[in-house]
Amino acid sequence: MILYDSPSPAPNPRRVRIFAAEKGIVLDIQPVSLMAREHKSTEHIARNPLGQTPVLELDDGTTISESVAICRYLEAVHPKPPLFGTSAVEIAHIEMWIRRTEFTLGAPVRAYWVNVHPFTAQVVPQRFEDFGKAAVSQAMAAMAVFDAALARSTFIAGELLSMADIVLLSTIDFATFIGLATPENLTNLRRWHSDMSARPSASA
Ligand SMILES: N[C@@H](CCC(=O)N[C@@H](CS)C(=O)NCC(=O)O)C(=O)O
Questions:
Q1: Is 3 within 8 Å of 28 (Cβ atoms)?
Q2: CA 132 → CA 7, 45, 87, distances in Å?
Q3: Domains of the chain with bracketed CATH
Q4: What is the pLDDT of residue 123?
Q5: Are 10 and 34 in contact (CB under 8 A)?
Q6: Closest atom, ligand 1, to C-alpha of 34
Q7: Would you tell me how many other CB atoms lie within 10 Å of the CB of residue 144?
Q8: Is the minimum distance from the CB of 52 to ligand 1 under 6 angstroms?
Q9: CB-CB contact of 163 with 68 (8 Å)
Q10: Per-residue model confidence as pLDDT tens digits over 131-172
Q11: Whose CA is nearest to atom 16 of ligand 1?
Q12: Residue 185 Cα, ligand 1 centroid: separation in angstroms?
């Protein structure tokens, strides 16, 4: 299997690398440079019409995009250790926290990145600065929700590491990279972040 990958700080390919590391799956990594706009090349658009990374290519040439979908495929072919849950409640809670992370934190972080951050000024044709700035308080409100949940459990979806933790870690680290660091007073989220960052998979 080939993973068309972009290095950190790109958060979405990192999810797949962390997931694979937690499973002990070795992927053939093919770098796609976002800086060189290789993700918009004809070759890459043929793999993913959205022109984004990551993309997983199977041995028969089938391609899968979307980081969570790729990890679901990997879970299906390498079920152990389970990272999407096994009981009905675990599966539902993990899905719930993945969606909460993507919608309530990932979306405002992206809005800030695309509309305000100087890195994207040259490549985003039309920016909406007010919209991007308003997203900061939305991101902070979302972090407070994750902090409250982590006061009650070791990992975001309960007592077991899951894909929800991987999605949250990649999003929090990218938020920090663009200047939206986790506030000091969110001690549960910071404790969880420190534990997650200490896992060998975090450096994948
Ligand atoms: N929902 C997608 C998001 C993919 C995505 O936004 N990838 C970024 C890299 S982290 C990218 O390719 N950005 C370039 C672009 O959107 O043009 C996923 O989870 O894989």
A1: yes
A2: 25, 28, 39
A3: 2-77 (3.40.30.10), 88-203 (1.20.1050.10)
A4: 87
A5: yes
A6: 14
A7: 13
A8: yes
A9: yes
A10: 999 999 999 999 999 999 999 999 999 999 999 999 999 999
A11: 52
A12: 30
Residue 179, phi-psi category: left (phi > 0), alpha (psi -120 to 50), beta (remainder): left
Question: CB of 38 closer than 6 A to ligand 1?
Answer: no
Counting ligand 1 atoms within 8 A of each CB, the residue from 4, 5, 8, 12 with the most, and so the one to mutate, is: 12
Rounded Cα distance, 179 and 144, in Å:
17
Rounded Cα distance between 168 and 173, Å, is 8
Q: What pLDDT, in 10s, does the model give residues 91-138?
A: 999 999 999 999 999 999 999 999 999 999 988 989 999 999 999 999
Q: What is the distance in A from the centroid of ligand 1 to the CA of 101?
A: 15
